[in-house]
Amino acid sequence: MMADERDGMRDGMLDAELDSALKDFRRSVHAWSEAELSRPRMVKAPMRTAVWRMAAGWAMGCVLVLGVGSAGVYEHGLRVEAAREQAKVAAEQEAQRKLAAQNAALDEDALLLHVDSDVARQVPAAMDPLTGLVDTEDAKQQ
After folding, report:
1. What are phi and psi of 67, to 5 degrees?
2. CB count, 10 Å around CB of 50?
3. Three-state SS at 127
4. 123 Cβ neighbours under 8 A, 6+ residues apart
5. How much helix, strand and coil, in percent to the nearest 5, is found in the chain?
6. What is the helix (H) or strand (E) element at residue 13, kind and residue range?
7. What is the residue extent of each domain of the chain?
8. How far apart are CA 61 and CA 55, in angstroms?
9. Cα 65 to Cα 57: distance, rounded to the nearest angstrom
10. Residue 131 in contact with residue 123, Cβ under 8 Å?
């Protein structure tokens, strides 16, 4: 016998062993599959807590969104109120400034009238008692 023939016989025996092993494996897999399919199974009922958890999650999410929204509206209201207060204070300051300007103008006018009256006097104030002794009509005729 030659080496090629011996190798061919050995390959043939290995092929037969491999086929036998694969057939046994196939039969065991089919047997296991049949056993699994035929055994009674327990069906688990869906848990109702999952629905409540999802509903509670949505409710909490809605509460969070409404809380953030209402906080924004409240903050906006505070800012509007602060702006109104600032406008009111600014208007009061403007009114006080105008009143002070008017008083200053009146004081200035009164001062100018006082100066005009002092300048327009022909006789100084110290000589007022003496002016009463002089007859103005006689002085005009002379």
Report:
1. -65, -45
2. 9
3. helix
4. 130, 131
5. 85, 0, 15
6. helix 3-38
7. 59-121
8. 10
9. 12
10. yes
Closest CA to 105 of 92, 113, 117: 113
Give this prediction's pTM: 0.37
Amino acid identity of residue 115, one-letter, is V
**Tokens at residue 86, please?**
């600032």
Question: In which region does residue 135 sit, left (phi positive, over 0), alpha (psi from -120 to 50) or beta (all else)?
Answer: beta
Q: What is the pLDDT along the chain (142 residues), one digit of tens a residue?
A: 466 666 666 777 778 888 899 999 999 999 999 998 888 888 877 666 677 888 889 999 999 999 999 999 999 999 999 999 999 999 999 999 999 988 888 888 888 888 777 776 666 677 777 777 766 665 555 5
